[in-house]
Every structure is written in structure tokens, then in C-alpha cells.
Specification:
The structure holds two protein chains of two kinds. By secondary structure, chain A is an alpha+beta fold. Helix content of chain A is 11%, strand content 24%. Chain A has helices at 10-18, 76-84, 248-259, and strands spanning 46-50, 122-126, 130-135, 141-145, 162-168, 171-177, 197-206, 209-217, 226-234. In chain B, a hairpin with a 5-residue loop joins β3 and β4 (149-153). The chains are: A alpha+beta, B alpha+beta.
Chain lengths: 263, 270
């Protein structure tokens, strides 16, 4: 985990992350079709962080721990799983020592799309055949192959899934399957099964903002597909730091950062 | 193995001709002036020496018997020049490799029971491929092993003393001709330098000289400097082969079982 002093606020963390960066931002590509003057919509590269106001009180703001304000349409199986979850967030929060959040005591990978709910930035890097999301949190990677390949059913079950994508106009559509069922969908214990199918519609709504509409399709856990929407702001002066989940104290520190109001 | 690969050279060349069509995006090339100058100095070359992107895997014969081939678990065949402190640390380690290998249940390898990050440069010794991606200000080495990354900032920044101690270190780099020189400091002392237990302290300073020897081969000359653990700096030489049809898979260290299967795979040459 990052070695900041205990009790430091997230606001301070953000300042520290911003200090040394002199990072040149990616210029629009000359081949961009119908590009607005200021950015290439097919260039998603850069460091992004969710565009919610900080500081926050995580126990009160749904977007810190789940994707939609309303409840997703759970099946009976899904309801049972959810009722058994003891998260450390939200309206039925348990103390850290009592939570059964699968990542808290063993630092297993967060899984997808839960990774988007963590209060740490991610960086998008693009190659000819890939759009790669590098998450600061525990060095996770969401590698979306855009080279035309199909899903590889010989893979998995995987923690972060098997992701392929294609461009529909200015929107990157990423399709991710082959998940294991060991992770929660969000931070308060909404469930998913191995049938989880995640469809992301990712686009730059303007130069500084990235939108990800995430559709969750999992017939075992949910009666119908449902969609969450997250907006991220470009952080041109930020760079990713090293953050490894080591033990429960990592989470303790992250939560303190989130819940401590700015002075 | 080289000879075998030579037979595939034509097929590789055909594939590579496709893979290395220059991108129109500015992302492909480092933004520095030295990079532009050096690129111009290699006319007619079939590859851009400042483009290190692609999936690479070490260029050693497979299958191997892990306990017999040093390069699976350490950087050099001979012993590095350890200080008294370094030697004491080394003697206390119980590696599962080499001529003094312990059974997995008895090893005190820091990775085996808790899956802590491998650290740098040890990450290079695990039998998994790496992928290099580049942005205008970074060369990023993505390791398949445990999803760790080695992010080398080439935008002119200095080391950040407020960072660390870190598992993978604080890496900055610059181009020296066609060689990327990466300088990494701010390490913690919780990792082994290799898989057999050679030590390092938090004074570890790693200098990598990374270059494409030719289109298909990447060379990394790694200098280890750590005055607490070693009497003088010493150097290792790694070579990687381009794998144009490979892509990284998901690999997370979970527990001891991951290592048992990994060691079996390595022994079987997978």
C-alpha cells in the first residue's frame, strides 16, 4: 500500500500525486474522423479519476460503493447472496473486523467492474490492437483487445474477465466475459455469478471528461440487464502511484482517507 | 534455440512487417529531442529502435529443469560480490530453487506464503512474458506475473523522494542513443533480488540499459548497486524475444498453490 501517514486526507493525497508531474498530454491524431477541434475522440489515453466532489462521506454517497442509486433488479438467488454480504459501506455497514468482503482479509483481486468504484485513478494506454486500463489500485489491468479477436472460451474463470472491444462511432464498446464468481460486483456486496457479462460504452464527452456506461447482464443474479454510469475527469498532471493491497490495514487507511473531511 | 528460430525468421518477418507499421499516433515515439535525433540516425532500419512496444519473453531454451538452470532463479551463473551483511542475509534464505533448494513447505521466500509483490528486478526472472507500452512520457513494462508493472517516466522528471519505500521502485529513464537507460530507486527491503534469495537493502539502485539488438531481440543490461548488500556494482544480461502473436494473460498470485503449478509449468517448459 501507499505509505502515507495514517489519518491523512484524500485531499492531501491528491495534492501529493499532482506535485511532480510534467506530463505532456497526448495530442489529437491527424487521422481522427470528424474530430472536434480540441480532441481525438478515439484517443482515450491519459490519467482519469472519477468526477465526484471530494471530500466525501462514503457511508452517505452511493457512488462511492455502488453503481446506481436505486437497487438493481436481483433474482431470488441474487437477493440471497446480497443478504448474506456484510460490507463495510453503505446503509448496512459492518465494522471492518466483521465484514465478509472477499478482498478485505486476503487481498484477492477486486474483480470487474468493482474496480471502478475505488477512490484511486486509472490510466488508459492504447496500442494498435488494445485499449488498456491500468488501475492504480493493486496494479490491476483491464486489457481490452480491439484487434478483432473473439472471446477465448479456453480462458478463465478470470478475476478481471476476458475483454474485447470495437468502436461504434466515437464510442468504444467493450464486452467482457469469462469471470469467476469470487468477487462482489460493487463495494456493498451486490452479487454476480460466472454468467456475468459486462458491456461498457466508453466515450470522451468532451476533452476533459470520459463517460463509461456499464451494463450488467447476469441472468443468475439479476432479472434483467441494468446500467450504471460513471464520469471521469482527465487529470493531465497526475501519474499513477504504486499501490499494492497488502493486508486489511491497506483498506483501513483508504477508508480513513475517504471518510476524513478536508480541514 | 537460436538456430531453430532462424528457420522461422521469414515467417516472423512477414508478421513483424505488419506489427510494426508505424502508427500515426504520437504515442509510439518518445517525445524527447534525443529520441528524435537518434531515430534519424538509424536510416533504413526495419524497426524503430525507440519503439520497444510488444510482447517479449526470455530467449532461453525450453523446457528447463528449474533446479539446474541458473537463469530461472538468478541473474548470473557466478555469485555476486556480497558484503558480510549480504552474505548473512543470503545464508538465512531458504529458496525453493537451486542446489540448496528447500521444499515449498519450508521455503521462506517472501512471495510464497503471502503473495507480496516480486519487486524489481526479480519480476524479470519469473517465467511469464512482459509487454512494453509507450506513451509520450513513459515506457511501461507490464509483467504478466501478478499483474505488476514497471512504469519508467521519460518526461524529464527527477526521482521523487517523497515516494516509497516501494515494491517496484521509482523509475525514471532517458534515451542514450538507441538505449533506454532506466534508473530505479526508493525500494523497500522486503523482497529478494532474485528467486534464490540474493538480498538487497533499501539502498538498492537498479540501472537498466534496454535496447533492441535487432527487430526480434530486446536486451536488458541490469546493473545492481547496493553498498549495503554488495561490495561493488555488478551487472546481469537478459535477452528477450519478440512474440508478435502473444498477448498477456491474467495472472494473479493468490497463494502457495499458484507457485506449485507455476514451478511445475516451468519445469515442464510451459
Amino acid at each position: 500500500m501507499r505509505k502515507f501517514a495514517a489519518g491523512i486526507t484524500l485531499a492531501v493525497v491528491i495534492v501529493v500525486l499532482s506535485i511532480p508531474a510534467v506530463r505532456a498530454q497526448t495530442k489529437p491524431s491527424s487521422e481522427a474522423p470528424k474530430a472536434p477541434a480540441t480532441f481525438d475522440p478515439h484517443d482515450l489515453s491519459g490519467v482519469w479519476f472519477d468526477d465526484h466532489p471530494r471530500p466525501i462521506t462514503v457511508m452517505q454517497r452511493y457512488w462511492a460503493y455502488k453503481f446506481t442509486e436505486g437497487e438493481p433488479p436481483m433474482t431470488a438467488w441474487g437477493q440471497t447472496q446480497y443478504a448474506a454480504a456484510k460490507p463495510s459501506f453503505g446503509p448496512h455497514a459492518f465494522p471492518l473486523a466483521e465484514t465478509n468482503d472477499p478482498v478485505y482479509h486476503t487481498c484477492i483481486p477486486l474483480g470487474f467492474p468493482r474496480i471502478f468504484l475505488y477512490p484511486l485513478p486509472f490510466q488508459i494506454v492504447q496500442t494498435r490492437g488494445e485499449v488498456i486500463l491500468l488501475f492504480e489500485y493493486d496494479s490491476h489491468r483491464h486489457q481490452i483487445f480491439t484487434d478483432g479477436r473473439a472471446h477465448d472460451t479456453s480462458l478463465g474463470p478470470l478475476w478481471m474477465g476476458d475483454a474485447i472491444g470495437h468502436w461504434e462511432g466515437d464510442t468504444l464498446v467493450a464486452d467482457t466475459v469469462n469471470f469467476n464468481d469470487k468477487t462482489w460486483l460493487d463495494r456493498i456486496g451486490h452479487p454476480h455469478s460466472q454468467q456475468l457479462h459486462v458491456i461498457e460504452h466508453i466515450r470522451r464527452v468532451d476533452h476533459d471528461h470520459l463517460e463509461n456506461e456499464i451494463t450488467i447482464d447476469d441472468p443468475k443474479a439479476y432479472t434483467r440487464p441494468w446500467t450504471g454510469r460513471i464520469v471521469f475527469a482527465l487529470k493531465p498532471k497526475w501519474t499513477l502511484a504504486e499501490e499494492f493491497c497488502e493486508d486489511i490495514s491497506s483498506f483501513d487507511s483508504i477508508e480513513k482517507q475517504e471518510v476524513t473531511p478536508a480541514k | 534455440m537460436r538456430i531453430v528460430w532462424a528457420g522461422f525468421r521469414f515467417a516472423l518477418a512477414c508478421t513483424l512487417a505488419f506489427v510494426f507499421v508505424p502508427r500515426s499516433s504520437a504515442q509510439t515515439k518518445p517525445a524527447s529531442k534525443t529520441a528524435a535525433t537518434a531515430s534519424a540516425a538509424a536510416p533504413g532500419s526495419s524497426f524503430d529502435p525507440h519503439d520497444l512496444t510488444g510482447v517479449w519473453f526470455d530467449d532461453r531454451p525450453r523446457p528447463v529443469t528449474t533446479n539446474e538452470r541458473y537463469w530461472i532463479f538468478k541473474f548470473n551463473a557466478e555469485e555476486p560480490p556480497m558484503t558480510e551483511w549480504g552474505l548473512a542475509q543470503y545464508k538465512a534464505t531458504k529458496s525453493s530453487f537451486g542446489d540448496r533448494a528447500y521444499p515449498l513447505a519450508e521455503t521462506n521466500d517472501p512471495l510464497y506464503h503471502t503473495c507480496t509483490p516480486p519487486g524489481l528486478p526479480r519480476a524479470y526472472l519469473h517465467p511469464f512474458p512482459i509487454q512494453i507500452v509507450q506513451t509520450p512520457g513513459e515506457v511501461i513494462v507490464l509483467f504478466e506475473y501478478d499483474s505488476v508493472r514497471h512504469q519508467i517516466f521519460t518526461d524529464g522528471r527527477k526521482h521523487d523522494e517523497t515516494l516509497g519505500p516501494l515494491w517496484m521502485g521509482d523509475a525514471i529513464g532517458h534515451w542514450d542513443g538507441d538505449t533506454l537507460v532506466a534508473d530505479t530507486v526508493n525500494f523497500n527491503d522486503k523482497t529478494w533480488l532474485d528467486r534464490i534469495g540474493h538480498p538487497h537493502s533499501d539502498q538498492l539502485h537498479v540501472v537498466e540499459r534496454i535496447r533492441r539488438k535487432d527487430r526480434d531481440h530486446l536486451v536488458n543490461d541490469i546493473t545492481i548497486e547496493d553498498p549495503k548488500a554488495y561490495a561493488k556494482p555488478w551487472t546481469a544480461h537478459l535477452e528477450f524475444l519478440l512474440r508478435p502473436k502473444w498477448s498477456l494473460a491474467e495472472q494473479f498470485c493468490e497463494d502457495e498453490e499458484s507457485f506449485q503449478s507455476m514451478d511445475k509449468d516451468a519445469a515442464a517448459g510451459k
